[in-house]
């Protein structure tokens, strides 16, 4: 299933190329220990880089030799004609040991610099002008600027200034105190920084999920098991004890917390259907057909082995964990074709839809149809709010809580309320940048004017933040900032890190705590175990491959670009990694007794085998193609 972080795709949170004094222009950092660093990707003609310079100078004064300041070139020639020439001029001055003098001279001059003014700065610095002009034309100087520019692009730099503090992208405020806090690293800032770096790792969500599952298995198979069971099975009530909202802790994790996860799944499905890989039916056919094959084949294998009372477990091996699958693809590096990642992600979106339909249709518990009327009314109200363009969040939250209660009372898995909310959270067209820029610039200019007036009047005790202009400016800045994201985008950004690193691990902690000393002596138990394992390891990839082959042969679907047969097989095997929904299916299929524990053990074992098999096939394919680049396998 899909998981997310608060890191935008394609943005490198960590600095891809570490600071190298032999290549980088470094100022300061000569302290014996506790050195902190700022890497600035800058453009000498960028007005915002100039605005930031006094803050950086103040930081250097405050931290002294503890601060290593690194300037890397990122000239935007299209926006600032002549920026590349000035960057090369700074590097030409570095050939004579005067990079920072040239750097300061350029920033100290008027912003509308031309070549003659740059040459005048070089003369004033006492540079050998013949050598300087020669170095300006030197290919090595140009190559240094180009390498900085390429490094910036690899780090996701799209504009200047872009800052990295201690090797981690800094997206905080550019004022002195905010940046000083980031550099001095108080405990809170260190925790936030470490969490952000960890969350940016492709497999971080999967890693936390594995640790939670391992902890649950440990707790369930040690002397701590009674305490673990007591916690998971203890009751927690909202409202009167024993009422409709009295559930066990495990049930709250399953139906309550997973609603947030399903909200993200719904938002992902909606995005893919409106602006992603499911918009063009030709591009969408292959993952759609493959997803259906990936559900039908494992279900068929399971039912072949379990035709009797254990047949309800057919859904357990049908769900795919895209977080683990994409994490493994990411760990294998950039040599994995992008089209393969897109295919797996799109397949998982369709798989999500099928899993939710399975939960809603096949596993209602104590079904009470009358409550579905209330759920229908709540859904209609969400639709009405969306059509009325209500962008405030609280009405959606209130109605979704009511929807959750109605679904729970009806006997339908209440976490599906998150999917319905995702369908109706409002989106907005992307705003034009110019009006928002004017709004933000006006607010900041007004604050700057009041601040300058106070300085000129010598009124050092005047508190600008207590002036009416401060409140007006802050409201305008907040409005401009909030308009960049729709309510759906803001919800997704807020919930995604919690879902990946808290909600899903808590569910795994409650759902995977099965005793491994399960009695497998009965034929039914062994059939469930092997049905789930073979469904994941053999059925899932077999269904994906056969369905894809049929779709391609019938010419209703196109193969992903640059994807070979072998790495397609490897990706299909990765789709056999079961996930949180597979564990949820086990609980729904076997609400009491041995079957659920056996099915969960099958999910865990089958997922490990599928992950190992898929990773091995992909790794072998990548090694063979690297060793013999002239050889290409037949495409899918």
Provide tags for this entry:
3 domains; 7 strands; disordered C terminus; Na+/H+ antiporter like fold; 636 residues; Glutaredoxin; 24 helices; two-stranded antiparallel sheet
Describe this structure in words.
The protein is mostly helical. It has 3 domains: 25-193, 3-Layer(aba) Sandwich (Glutaredoxin), CATH 3.40.30; 204-363 and 413-426 and 488-626, Na+/H+ antiporter like domain (Na+/H+ antiporter like fold, Up-down Bundle); 433-483. 63% of the residues lie in helices and 5% in strands. It has 24 helices and 7 strands. It has helices at residues 47-63, 83-94, 99-108, 115-124, 129-136, 139-154, 176-184, 187-200, 204-220, 225-233, 249-275, 281-305, 322-331, 338-362, 370-387, 394-410, 417-424, 433-456, 468-483, 487-511, 523-553, 565-574, 580-589, 594-627, and strands at 25-28, 36-42, 67-73, 162-165, 168-170, 235-237, 246-248. The strands form 2 sheets. It has a 5-stranded mixed sheet with strand order 1-3-2-4-5. Strands 6-7 form a two-stranded antiparallel ribbon. Residues 1-10 and 626-636 have low confidence and may be disordered.
For the termini, the CA-CA separation is: 25 Å
CATH superfamily of the largest domain: Na+/H+ antiporter like domain
Query: How are the strands of the largest sheet arranged?
Result: 1-3-2-4-5
Shape: globular
CATH class of the largest domain: Mainly Alpha
The count of domains is 3
Overview in brief:
By secondary structure, this protein is mainly α. The chain contains 24 helices and seven strands. The model is unreliable at 1-10 and 626-636 (pLDDT under 50).
